[in-house]
Amino acid sequence: MRWIPLLVGALPLVGCSQGMHPFGWGASGDDTGEALDSGAAPQRLEGAIDRVVPAWGSTLGGEEVHILGGPFDDTAEVLFTGAGVLMQATVLSATSTQLTVLTPSWAEEVSLTSVEVKTDTHRAVAPDAFRYFEDGAGLTGMLGALERFERLGEVEAGAARTWARAQALFTRPTVLDWGKYRYAPGVDQCRVGYEGPPDGEPLQVYETELSSLELSSSAGGSVHLAVDPGASWRFAAEPDPSAFVHGSTYHLEPTAGSAGVWPEVSLDALFVSPNPLSLYSPYLDSTYPPSIGRDWFMLSWDTSDPADYVVADLRRYHGDTLVETVTCKLADDGSFTVPPTAWTGWDTGSALSIRIGRVSEGTATLPYNGARAGVVGISWVVGTGAQQ
Questions:
Q1: Is there a single domain that holds both residue 224 and residue 94?
Q2: Count of alpha carbons within 13 Å of 144, Cβ hemisphere only?
Q3: Residue at a domain's end among 133, 152, 178
Q4: Which of 365, 388, 379 is closest to 150 using CA atoms?
Q5: For residue 247, which phi and psi values (nearest 5 degrees)?
Q6: Which helix (H) or strand (E) holds 354?
Q7: CA-CA 20 to 30 A from 289: which of 37, 69, 134, 305?
Q8: Cα–chain-centroid distance for residue 307?
Q9: What is the rounded distance in angstroms from the CA atom of residue 180 to the CA atom of residue 311?
Q10: Which pLDDT tens digit goes with each residue over 206-261?
Q11: Number of domains observed in the structure of the chain
């Protein structure tokens, strides 16, 4: 496992063990833990750890884990070892085939730790059996969006009236949400050429080794996001626009990762797609593009069914050349005036591409570290104005 820098800052790669092991072990175990014993150790028979469930948790510790195998009894001592560190778990209950323990806290995220069980008569070690993830409570651990675009006004021959896209990635816990990551650092703010907050922590992306993600909708249908390891967004798709259903709840279906590399994760109610946004000003659904002045660029929209916030993607052209892009994150309160200072210039008679989207944020929690799954649904309207 390694961290990969993405867009918002440079980050050196952090190496990790490549010796990942499936979540199943034979009776012989591994002898790596015995060197950590001090003094003369009693002779013990070999036991077995068949499985650790779940096989991951937060560095905060205190999470209930079941160790399956045996033979166990109420003299069992459970140790987690990794990177030269040994920590003892709290045993809650014991049967001959299962131990229930509370995980010890861990100072920092590690790829995989070994789990060792010792009783008065037996000893078993499961190498690379448990993974610690950095605690993400109150932070974001997944970013992504399912977006639907509807073009208003005249449409060029062969151009689509509606289209959709989906993208997602898993990240180490971050203070960023979708709006702060893509559009502006705060509400009712605009930025030109925005690439994330300059004082923010670099986004560190997990390489999961998953082949795809699958979103299902409460309205029926699904969205399949294929993996593209070389892309900024590790999972992406261009689904049919019908895959985006306004007011529908979307779920993340169980992931199918390689055992020992990434947890199986499924999330109910990942996000609810917002209802459409009706843009009043500028009025884009006309034969001729509206005139827009740098000093009087007002946005207004319907607020009968507001969502979490609204985003704007505004692109100024000089002739056919894109000159600059201004992005804004706005309160969904029905109006906003784009400040003249948001632009570095203005070209009378040239085009202005306008995209206004209503955003609904997800609130699901990732089970392996307690971070929020910050995937959003966005319903966009798209049109063209004329700089005046």
A1: no
A2: 31
A3: 133
A4: 379
A5: 75, 15
A6: strand 351-361
A7: 305
A8: 20
A9: 10
A10: 988 888 999 999 999 999 999 987 788 899 999 999 999 999 999 999 986 555 56
A11: 2
Of 15, 59, 85, the closest CA to residue 173 belongs to 59
Asked whether the beta carbons of 126 and 29 are under 8 A apart, the reply is yes
Q: Is the peptide bond before 71 cis (omega within 30 degrees of 0)?
A: yes
In the block, residue with structure tokens 């505004």: 314
Q: Name 304's Cβ contacts closer than 8 Å, sequence gap at least 6.
A: none
Q: Is 36 helix (H, G, I), strand (E, B) or coil?
A: helix
* Below-70 pLDDT ranges, the chain: 1-42, 157, 198-201, 256-261
The pTM (predicted TM-score) of the whole model is 0.84
Distance CA 383, CA 356 (A): 9
Distance (Å, whole) CA 224 – CA 166: 9
Local structure of 144: helix, strand or coil: strand
Q: Examine the domain organization and report whether 251 and 327 are in the same domain.
A: yes
How far is the C-alpha of 86 from the C-alpha of 72, rounded, in Å? 21
In angstroms, the CA 18 to CA 160 distance is: 46
Place of tokens 């021959």: 157
The answer to whether residues 41 and 34 touch, using CB atoms and an 8 Å cutoff, is yes
**Type of residue at 241:** P
**CA–CA separation, 260 and 264 (whole Å):** 10
Q: Which residue has the tokens 């920590």?
A: 87
Buried b (16+ CB within 10 A) or exposed e, 86-96: ebebebeebee
Residue 128's domain spans which residues? 19-133
Name the nearest CA neighbour of 382 among 120, 137, 148. 148
